């Protein structure tokens, strides 16, 4: 059976709410993150979604660099990346419901997401990744640009050792 998926930018408040619900289900309910609350970045974020039969099954949050800065700056200094030629955004909260995770959906979805991000004018993306999932982002063309760090919001075992790393990708070309 072939899935009929639509990849798009969340255009309504209802679609954005559904995107946040998918993110909540994956990160908190499934991966046991402490919380995945709405924050000050949600007001300026773009949500990119995958929809099947009017149900959001995957979501990704794209935060433009603005006066607020970016969430990753809690851990990493981004000033060396900033210049007049760089339009920076942070990708976060990539989530896909369990029953829909497979290579084809991921590749098609990420291809659409990258196209959309490029069309929004962003030249570079940054992302915070758990050390255990960094391989996926390297496969997608991201490179590490800082040392691993400790992110307390994802420390499931109170180990206080590095569990995350920052990655970057140029969207040019």
| Main pleated-sheet profile | 7 strands, mixed
- How many extended strands? 7
Q: Radius of gyration over alpha carbons?
A: 16 Å
Number of helices: 3
Structural class of the helix and strand makeup? Answer: alpha+beta
Shape: globular
Give helix % range: 10-25%
Stretches where pLDDT is under 50 for at least 5 consecutive residues are none
Helix and strand pattern: EHEEEHEHEE
Multimerization state: single chain
What proportion of the residues form beta strands (DSSP E)?
Answer: 25-35%
Descriptive overview:
It is built from 3 helices and 7 strands, in the order βαβββαβαββ. The protein has helices at residues 13-30, 103-119, 134-139; strands at residues 5-9, 46-52, 55-64, 88-96, 124-130, 143-144, 164-170. With 173 residues, it is α+β, with helices and mostly antiparallel strands. The model has no long low-confidence stretch (mean pLDDT 86). The chain has a 7-stranded mixed beta sheet, with helices on both faces.
Short descriptors:
single chain; 173 residues; 3 helices
Overview in brief:
By secondary structure, the chain is α+β, with helices and mostly antiparallel strands. It is built from three helices and seven strands.
List the helices and strands and how they pair.
Elements: E1 5-9, H1 13-30, E2 46-52, E3 55-64, E4 88-96, H2 103-119, E5 124-130, H3 134-139, E6 143-144, E7 164-170
Parallel strand pairs: 4-5
Antiparallel strand pairs: 1-2, 2-3, 3-4, 5-7, 6-7
